[in-house]
Automatic annotation (TrEMBL):
Chief localisation class: membrane
PANTHER family found in the cross-reference section: UNDECAPRENYL-DIPHOSPHATASE (PTHR30622)
Compartment(s) of residence: Cell membrane
Protein name per the record: Undecaprenyl-diphosphatase
Alphabetically ordered keywords of this record: Antibiotic resistance, Cell membrane, Cell shape, Cell wall biogenesis/degradation, Hydrolase, Membrane, Peptidoglycan synthesis, Transmembrane, Transmembrane helix
Purpose: Catalyzes the dephosphorylation of undecaprenyl diphosphate (UPP). Confers resistance to bacitracin.
NCBIfam families attached to this UniProt entry: PRK00281.1-2 (NF001389), PRK00281.1-4 (NF001390), PRK00281.1-5 (NF001391), undec_PP_bacA (TIGR00753)
Catalyzed reactions: di-trans,octa-cis-undecaprenyl diphosphate + H2O = di-trans,octa-cis-undecaprenyl phosphate + phosphate + H(+)
Length: 283
């Protein structure tokens, strides 16, 4: 039975590794996958922790790919390069302030009230429409981004991006989706915000994972060896898949817009709504 659960964990890891970075909502996909794939030793406490901690695999991939750029102590860096690295971290910390202030007290409330098929589907559709509208508007009016270099992005812009990231508290919104959409609205180029979104995920995901593990332990819940192995395999899979997806997305945004993700979000949202309605009628 453990072998089957580990195969299921691989599926979850693949889904997480792909959807964490694309602006399509990893939460929405995990909710859908969990409807059809269940672990033999699953319980509510473990599943709640699993959904968040699995993201660590994805974020470690960012740290591996961008290790040299994110490391201010890398031997051989010039004084200017070290300065730019510290400035990058300062922008990341400024951008996560809104989530720290609003996210910590509201996260459980949003999860309790909106972690369901209908809410997720509606957010998928709404943001899908916004992405398509935004890209069409920019193309129609020939609107060019004003921020095309992450090193030159202001701290004020980083704060604005952080405010948009707060929208991701709503399940189905997508952390990358909300930051990318918001950044494009204020004139940040696709390559710049895509990369910055990767970096924002480091403190956000480590913080969220640490908080979930702490709550899990405080609640008195225990994790079995099998559950630990399931989580570990899912994280490892998410890490490996993320290595490829991150590189794919950084190349993709240099030549393409985000409309394809908008269409995908709308299609997935409609599918989830239809499924939720059918499930309600057949209950």
């Amino acid at each position: 039975m453990l072998f089957i659960d580990l195969l299921k964990a691989i599926i979850f890891g693949i889904v997480e590794g792909i959807t964490e970075w694309l602006p399509v909502s990893s939460t929405g996909h995990l909710i859908l996958v969990q409807e059809f794939i269940k672990f033999s030793q699953e319980n509510a406490d473990f599943l709640e922790m699993f959904n968040v901690v699995i993201q660590l695999g994805a974020i470690i991939a960012v740290m591996v790919i961008y290790f040299d750029r994110l490391n201010p102590f890398k031997p051989g860096k010039t004084k200017r390069e070290v300065q730019l690295t510290w400035q990058l971290w300062a922008k990341v910390l400024i951008a996560i302030l809104p989530v720290m202030v609003l996210g910590l007290p509201l996260d459980d409330w949003f999860e309790a009230h909106f972690h369901n098929f209908v809410s997720v589907a509606l957010m998928l559709i709404i943001y899908g429409v916004v992405f398509i509208w935004l890209e069409n508007r920019n193309a129609r009016e020939d609107i060019q981004p004003t921020v095309t270099d992450l090193n030159k992005m202001s701290y004020k812009t980083a704060l604005y991006i952080g405010l948009f990231q707060v929208l991701s508290l709503m399940p189905g919104t997508s952390r990358s989706g909300s930051t990318i959409m918001g950044a494009m609205l204020i004139g940040v180029s696709r390559p710049v915000i895509t990369e910055f979104t990767f970096f924002l995920g480091i403190p956000v995901m480590f913080g969220a994972s640490g908080l979930k593990v702490l709550k899990f332990l405080i609640s008195g819940a225990n994790i079995s060896l099998n559950q630990f192995l399931i989580l570990l395999v899912a994280m490892l899979t998410a890490f490996i898949v993320s290595l490829y997806v991150i590189r794919f997305l950084t190349d993709f945004v240099k030549k393409h817009d985000f409309k394809i993700f908008g269409y995908y979000r709308i299609a997935l949202g409609v599918i989830i709504l239809v499924y939720a309605l059918a499930k309600f009628l057949l209950a």
